Amino acid sequence: MDVDNISLRFGGLKALSDVSFHVKPGELFSIIGPNGAGKTSMLNCISGRYSPTEGRVRFEGRDITKLKPNKRAAIGIGRTFQNLALFSHMSVLDNIMVGRHHLLKNNFFSGAIYWIGGAQKEELEHRKAVENVIDFLEIQHVRKATAGTLSYGLRKRVELARAVALEPKIILLDEPMAGMNLEEKEDMARYIIDLNEEWGMTIIMIEHDMGVVMDISHRVMVLDFGRKIAEGLPAEVLANENVRKAYLGEDDLEIDGASVHEDEVA
Q: Long-range contacts of range 49-54, CB-CB < 8 Å, 24 or more positions apart?
């Protein structure tokens, strides 16, 4: 994934300013920064929800800057959202099945339709794939539950399941651990690592828990007021003076359990 000189404006507001970066296949790449830094705007440019004012996005060597979100999903770009986007009246199973619709050969999709012939066989294959995702994310006990009745942590896991069901080559995670308790965060971190290492998915993640980010990321990029101020290995980013100033305006950076002090970076 290549993001080249992306700028994004909303009227007189510049949300992103000339941001470039490259994510290697198989990498777990995190984007961090203070609130309002442009992190979600960047994911929206990659997923196609926003069209950048300037610059381009390339995936597997192909310029996808003008591609619609559904077309990006079809070529292997999945995502979750900061604010849950589940169908609250549908079951967990049906929510996850929605994530498979780009893989269906048929021109329609409905859980209420009885399939026959080749279509029936296709649906069985998709349901088997969905059950694998359900097992992986350990949500078997709520597979038939209505999504809107679940706890927040479980709904976040269902949203991840729906994105994973697409079988994406690259998955965009927008604050996957927001609002979770410590145990739920540890579980989610484990799932993300396994998706990257065992399922072979490239991951671009936004996350505010610096302890998690620094523990599991291969590389980290920092945005501040829409500009890239740092990029590199987690330890390098923590030691960066501009990063410390962006978060606290001090010489010590201490964010959600990850910290670095002046005598450690001299």
A: 50/8, 52/6, 52/7, 52/8, 52/16, 53/7, 53/8, 53/9, 54/5, 54/6, 54/7, 54/18
On whether the CB atoms of residues 115 and 108 are closer than 8 A, the answer is: no
Burial class (CB in 10 A: 0-12, 13-18, 19+), 80: buried
Q: How many domains does the chain have?
A: 2
Q: Would you give the DSSP letter of residue 209?
A: -
Q: Give the predicted TM-score (pTM) of the model.
A: 0.85
In order, the DSSP letters of 212-236 are HHHHH-SEEEEEETTEEEEEE-HHH
Q: What is the pLDDT of residues 35-64, one digit of tens each?
A: 899 999 999 999 999 999 999 999 999 999
Range of the domain at 94: 89-165
Tokens of 37: 């830094």
Residue 31 sits in a domain whose CATH number is 3.40.50.300
